């Protein structure tokens, strides 16, 4: 317990938060690099999204157009349309181009895939620390950056070779939250608008949180006109940046196709309409809050109406119009996009512990806060609670909810430490130390407790076997075969594209919906119907890893389907069994 004063109670009077952030970030980064060494060496990433991002990156480096994000080794000759922004690839490309002449492209890919996620982690930790410092004190900032650097919900998106867009979404979220506490309203508004525009350009998953920022700024302007300066600069920056990012990544400009899963012309029109209504109103500054609330409501309704008028299909969301077969056999099994009640108990406990601790911390801190401190806590609490509610319905947004909870938790830890220093009761001091330690790592503690209660070793062993089979190092064994077109489980497809010259029919990326439907139909339908689809797509081989959850769904739904029969050893005459490769990859060749 005597170590605590050295941690929080005797910080140098001239302590610089950026310097401490750098030191802690370097230490955590070293640990992450060591623990991720095998993934770095394989350049395989942590999931199919990382793998396919690397494939897209290599295609771009090999000459594919900036404006063309089609994946040409999926879906036969036509290729598979993708929805990812090239913006995320830019920092990776810069490092690879810089280092490739010196150390070669493989090593440059490892360096880029290591440095960029760790850079995102450092930026996020620093910004969350600055938010906590604004809420409470310099000491709270130190605690917040430490919690950020050891938070599993944050670290899982910033591990080396985690190169997909999820980490950058957290960076933009942290930046947006930090700007709210900047005293310079113009600078804060400009950077906030830019952060939200980049966030939405990377992924429309940021739309609900973007709406929350505008709701807060609009609310403050409605009841206090002085806040209009921050709002006007935010709207201007957001609108201009959104337009620039869209035009800079779309070859057809405003005539580009309409999609509901990314910024499209209808979204640009909706942003322009809202800006055209709000900007003059803020400048004119009408008297009376009822008039201002009516103007804000008109802007919101006009923007939504414009979007739905130009893209009525988007009223059902990005996945609302999926093919029923794709929805039933793929989408409803993508747990990260589903509500909390579809998740496992251990994941819920590990990831929701921090936001719930943040909620408790907010309540306790508000009881004693006054003046500006109380106002700032309410603002931080608004975003924290909003993000928590959002993550209940869309589980993959939990990392942002955790990041937003950290500053409030850090403020409470520092407050508890002040009580610790004043207390003379050994029991109370032990209780306070215990509470502070629990607040530092609530997710890890909760996850371990649940794991001991609901652990399922047999299921874990089966999952591990399938993961080893589908690992990039295992799938690379398919290089022994001549260049071919494969049918493989969705999550195995990106590994095939990453490590071999082969092509696949589909992966778990929804714009390739027609090919995804045919992929499912082949495994699910009777052998004769499956053969017709295989012939249409000129598929030459089938490769699977037994134990894959996707395949189990086909077996359960149709015991007489192609995969069910193959799993039982009932091979149709038009398929030839082959020797397993890699970590027990089962193979069949399609006979001509």
What's the short story on this structure?
The chain is mainly alpha-helical.
Gap between N and C termini, in Å?
Answer: 74 Å
Number of helices: 27
Fraction of residues in helix: 55-70%
> Proportion of β residues?
under 5%
State Rg.
26 Å
Low-confidence stretches: 1-13, 457-462
Largest sheet: 5 strands, mixed
- Name the strands of the widest sheet in spatial order: 2-1-3-5-4
- The average pLDDT score comes to 89
- Quantity of strands, as a count: 5
Q: Output the structural class.
A: mainly alpha
How would you characterize this protein structure?
The protein is mainly alpha-helical. It contains 27 helices and five strands. It has a five-stranded mixed sheet with strand order 2-1-3-5-4, with helices on one face. It is 65% helix and 4% strand. β4 and β5 form a beta hairpin. α6 packs parallel to α9, α13 packs antiparallel against α14 and α16 packs antiparallel against α20.
List keywords for this structure.
592 residues, 5-stranded mixed β-sheet, disordered N terminus, mainly alpha
Topology:
Elements: H1 4-9, H2 17-35, H3 37-42, H4 48-61, H5 89-103, H6 105-135, H7 138-150, H8 152-155, H9 166-179, H10 185-202, H11 207-223, H12 228-247, H13 265-284, H14 289-310, H15 324-329, H16 345-366, H17 371-393, H18 398-422, H19 426-440, H20 442-454, H21 457-470, H22 472-475, E1 485-487, H23 493-499, E2 503-504, H24 513-524, H25 527-536, E3 541-544, H26 549-557, H27 562-567, E4 575-581, E5 585-590
Parallel strand pairs: 1-2, 1-3
Antiparallel strand pairs: 3-5, 4-5
Helix pairs in contact: 2-6, 2-7, 4-23, 5-6, 6-7, 6-9, 6-18, 7-18, 9-10, 9-18, 10-12, 11-14, 11-17, 12-13, 13-14, 16-17, 16-18, 16-20, 17-18, 18-19, 24-25
């Amino acid at each position: 317990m005597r170590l605590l004063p050295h941690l929080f109670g005797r910080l140098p009077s001239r302590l610089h938060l950026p310097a401490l952030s750098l030191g802690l970030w370097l230490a955590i980064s070293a640990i992450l690099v060591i623990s991720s060494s095998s993934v770095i060496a394989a350049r395989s990433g942590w999931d199919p999204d990382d793998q396919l991002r690397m494939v897209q990156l290599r295609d771009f480096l090999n000459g594919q157009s900036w404006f063309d994000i089609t994946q040409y080794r999926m879906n036969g000759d036509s290729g598979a349309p993708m929805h990812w922004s090239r913006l995320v690839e830019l920092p990776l490309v810069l490092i690879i181009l810089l280092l490739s002449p010196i150390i070669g492209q493989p090593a440059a890919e490892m360096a880029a895939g290591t440095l960029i996620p760790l850079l995102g982690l450092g930026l996020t930790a620093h910004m969350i620390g600055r938010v906590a410092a604004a809420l409470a004190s310099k000491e709270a900032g130190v605690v917040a950056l430490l919690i950020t650097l050891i938070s599993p919900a944050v670290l899982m998106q910033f591990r080396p070779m985690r190169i997909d867009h999820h980490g950058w979404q957290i960076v933009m979220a942290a930046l947006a939250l930090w700007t709210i506490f900047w005293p310079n309203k113009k600078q804060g508004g400009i950077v906030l608008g830019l952060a939200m525009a980049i966030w939405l350009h990377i992924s429309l998953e940021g739309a609900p949180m973007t709406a929350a920022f505008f709701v807060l700024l609009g609310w403050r302007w409605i009841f206090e006109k002085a806040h209009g300066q921050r709002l006007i600069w935010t709207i201007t920056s957001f609108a201009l940046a959104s337009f620039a990012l869209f035009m800079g990544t779309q070859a057809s400009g405003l005539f580009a196709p309409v999609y509901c899963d990314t910024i499209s012309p209808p979204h640009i029109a909706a942003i322009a309409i809202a800006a055209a209504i709000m900007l003059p109103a803020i400048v004119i500054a009408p008297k009376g809050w009822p008039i201002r609330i009516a103007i804000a409501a008109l802007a919101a309704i006009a923007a939504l109406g414009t979007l739905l008028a130009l893209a009525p299909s988007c009223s059902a969301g990005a996945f609302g119009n999926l093919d029923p077969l794709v929805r039933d056999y793929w989408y409803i099994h993508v747990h990260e996009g589903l509500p909390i009640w579809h998740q496992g108990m251990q994941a819920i406990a590990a990831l929701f512990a921090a936001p719930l601790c943040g909620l408790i911390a907010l309540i306790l801190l508000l009881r004693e806060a006054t003046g500006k401190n109380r106002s700032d806590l309410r603002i931080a609490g608004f975003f924290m609670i909003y993000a928590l509610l959002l993550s209940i319905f869309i589980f993959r947004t939990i990392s942002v909810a955790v990041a937003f909870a950290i500053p409030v938790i850090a403020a409470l830890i520092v407050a508890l430490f002040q009580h610790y220093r004043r207390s003379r009761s050994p029991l109370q001091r032990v209780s306070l130390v215990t509470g502070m330690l629990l607040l530092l790592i609530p997710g890890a503690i909760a996850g371990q407790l649940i794991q001991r209660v609901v652990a399922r070793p047999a299921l874990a062993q089966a999952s591990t076997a399938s993961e080893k089979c589908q690992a990039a190092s295992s799938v690379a064994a398919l290089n022994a075969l001549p260049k071919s077109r494969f049918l493989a489980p969705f999550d195995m497809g990106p590994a095939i594209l990453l490590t071999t010259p082969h092509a696949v029919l589909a992966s778990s990326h929804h714009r390739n919906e027609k090919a995804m439907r045919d992929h499912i139909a082949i495994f699910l339908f009777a052998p004769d119907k499956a053969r017709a689809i295989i012939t249409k797509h000129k598929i030459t081989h089938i490769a699977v890893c037994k134990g894959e959850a996707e395949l189990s769904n086909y077996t359960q739904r149709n015991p007489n389907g192609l995969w069910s029969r193959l799993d039982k050893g009932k091979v149709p005459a038009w398929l030839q069994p082959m020797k397993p490769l890699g970590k027990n990859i089962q193979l069949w060749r399609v006979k001509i």
